[in-house]
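Thread: "does anyone have the structure for this chain?"

Original post by V.I.:
We have the sequence but no experimental structure in hand. Need at least a predicted one for the grant figures.
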Amino acid sequence: MTATHDSRFDAVVVGAGPAGASAACALASNGLRVALLDRAKFPRDKLCGGLLSQRSLRIIGDVFGSCPLPIEFRATSAAVFVRDALAVRVHDTTPLHFTSRRQLDACLAAVAVARGAHLLECSTVASIDFTCGRVVLSDGRSLSTSFVIGADGAASRVRKLAGVSIDRRGFAIGLEVEVPRDEVRRDIQDAEVYFDVAEWGYGWVFPKRDTFTVGVGGLATENADMQASFRELARAALGAVPAQRVCGSPIPFGNFVARPGHGSTLLVGDAAGLVEPLTGEGIAFAVLSGHYAAQAIIEATRVSAPSRALDLYLPRYRSIARAFEDVRMLRRLVFSRHTKRLFQRALGGNARLIIKHMEVLAGEAEYRDYARFALQETVAHLPQIVRAGFRSLGAIH
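Reply from O.Q.:
Generated one for you, tokens below.
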């Protein structure tokens, strides 16, 4: 990967994960001079389950071209549990692909560099002069630019410097560990999801080539002890708590910002809160938002009006936000203490609920349609739940 000592760029992208690499790739491909900054040196680790849906693969292909991706495992089956009890298992589904973010992020950043972006590793932002278009790095270097893209994650420095607020109550906490396959007693081939191990969240076990990614996440305001939730998940899924060190990270969870930036400064991916509010899927929307921000900058450059970048970005950004609004309704059904038992009862043995959700992940169905379907399936089980309640009352008396 290459660096540069020239301090003048058309755009400075802060953060070289999927969102930043996507933006830098599109900008460089259109002839703009781009600095792509990252605080780490690649390859570097990132807390993430590493699930790539068919939708993610399609979006990545659209932006980065036909580059070979580091796919470690493919699953065509999935299992959903309520704590340690199997609720439903489905087979022959739309494939789910699993990767290591350590390898994926390095791969996508390398494509951006090959297209002409200048990668500055081990670089952090100290300050930004938005009026003069100057980004000052922590080591004293100064970069002049017309545009800044904040792709620097949930705790975005660019977002804070731009004065864009995000609802801290909407953050989730994620805990995760990589467990070697030979340390797990059973051979897991499915993508596994566990409800009721965390409030307003869930646990996951995702198969990789040599490991299983075991994690749990949920709204920080609803989970006082996420470590306890992780231990419960580990005992339910693995039979024991793994010895490996557990890593944690904040995750936006439905608290995307209303205006993702200011003038010629744009926010993308986790920095804008663009994580799907039910499953926490973020890679597809990171890449998509990075590409949308790049398109807005390209258009603003053509008309020599950097300050119009945000206005050009907003319609595209809001297309993602509208889909997330539909997911918020679905999330209340799945996680609210008033309705989650109804949903879990509807889930039992109901392969259609999972298959339909797989279709959404593949981009073959809309979130709004799936939310309606899930609500109909849940309401259809109300008579059974009422009868079960009366039987329970009879047993008590």
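V.I.: this helps a lot. The longest strand covers residues 171-180.
O.Q.: and The CA atoms of residues 32 and 232 lie 50 Å apart.
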